[in-house]
Each structure stands twice: as structure tokens, then as C-alpha cells.
Amino acid sequence: MGIRVLYIAEIVGKAGIWSVKSSLSHIKKTEKPDIVIANGDGTTGGWGLGRQHAGYLRKLGIDAITGGDCIFYKKDLVEGLDTLPYVLRPANYPAESPGRGWRFFNAGTKRIAVVSLLGRASFSRVHSENPFTMLPVLSDRLRQETPYILVDFHASATAEKQALFYLADGLVSAVIGSHSRVQTSDERILEKGCGVITDSGRTGSQNSVAGIDAAVKIREYISRVPDWSRDAWAKPELQGVVLDLDDAGRTAGIRRFRYECPDPPGAGAEEE
Predict the structure, then answer these.
(1) Domain annotation covers residue 172
(2) Per-residue model confidence (pLDDT) at position 27
């Protein structure tokens, strides 16, 4: 038997946390995954991941949390990142950065390597190493320990994601695209067995602009003043991908899902 992976699309704001809290246990009973992986780059206020929220997501049943361009936005996480082995920052950040970009995790009776990589296009505030030169070297190292390697590629440009998919085919088990926060319908298995999807979507409010209140984002586009001040709550969903990996580490099956979550107890409800 191989491994079944449940990947939860980027968790955004309080509605995203509520979606995990209200629905993850049900999805786990239905899908019976060996490991649950989630992108948490927008968990705290829509941008970044606070340490308290990281611990809470872990408590709710998430085994590994990947980041992205916002991973260092919350000071309390940065200060404690070296003590949180289940949180990954991009592996192509400088070696001097706190935390780790990849780790091995138990998945049933087997081990899987989870890797966070960051794209370079359109991230003007971030200066990362080239993921295209890093991935082949890193995959060679990881395959000495396990055939199961999952990459979360947090990138803005669709073309950059597509190019990395084909580079990764034959090197890793799967590459899951994140960052766009809109689920794409192009999940597929490439010729050498790499499962891919351009973007897994977002977990949180769907009647919103990337999980943020629409009126706030409209005002931002009019004024040009960045504003992430108000989470949206309407129509919470838990989105993501289920992957079945065979004994050789190839993707045998990949399917995306969207799970409508119950409404929170009240507008502005807290996650706990």
C-alpha cells in the first residue's frame, strides 16, 4: 500500500480557521488520509501565520503546515520557528533564515518528505533562491530516504508553476500549487507520475476577495493603500486535494474537493 495525502488549500483568516475546526474531522473520517498537510500563509488576518494559530491548527489535526511569501510577517512565529518542526518556510530562502524548508513526516507506517518552495515572479518584497535549480538537487537528497516527496509550490505566475511541474516530473511525487487562492480545474498526473494542480484554492470565505471583505479590497484598488483589515465570513468552504501515492512514490490518483462548511455561530465569531 502507498500513502493517501489530504492537502488543505491555503487557510485564510478566521473563516478559514473555522472551516478547519468545523469540518476537518468529518473529511478525515471520510477520506482516511495517512497525513494532513495545509498551507497556512494567510491564516492570521489574511497574511502570515501567528504562532498561536500554528499551534491551534496542529491541535485541530493538521500534521504539516507550509508557508509562502508571508511566512515571516508575524514576529511571534519568526522568533519561535525553530521550535515548531511542523511549520515549513520556503526551502529556497537563505540558509540563514529561521526554520526549515523541508522535513520528513510520518504517514501511517511510512515517511513522506514535505517541501515548501517559493516562486520568484511578482514577489517584489522577497528575494529567494532559484527553485528550478534547487529542486533537482534537493529531490536527489530526499529520495535516498523515501520515495514519497510532496512539494507545495507557492507562486504567483501560472507559467512559472507549469514549468516547475514538468521539471519535477520524475523527481517528486506531486507538486501542489498555492498562493492564487482560486481553485483551478487542471489536476492531472504527468507522464512520469507527478501529480500536479496549478492552484488548490483557499479555505475560508468564498464570497470575498481572496478571503478578505470585498468592500475593503475595492477601496484598496481605488486608493492604492494596502488594506487587510477585515476578514470575510460568507460561504465558508474547506478546499484542497486528495492524493493517492503508490509504492514507488508516484501519484496514482489526484482529485480536488470543495467542502461547504456550516455557518459560524455568529458574524465575527472567534475560532475558539
Answers:
(1) yes
(2) 98
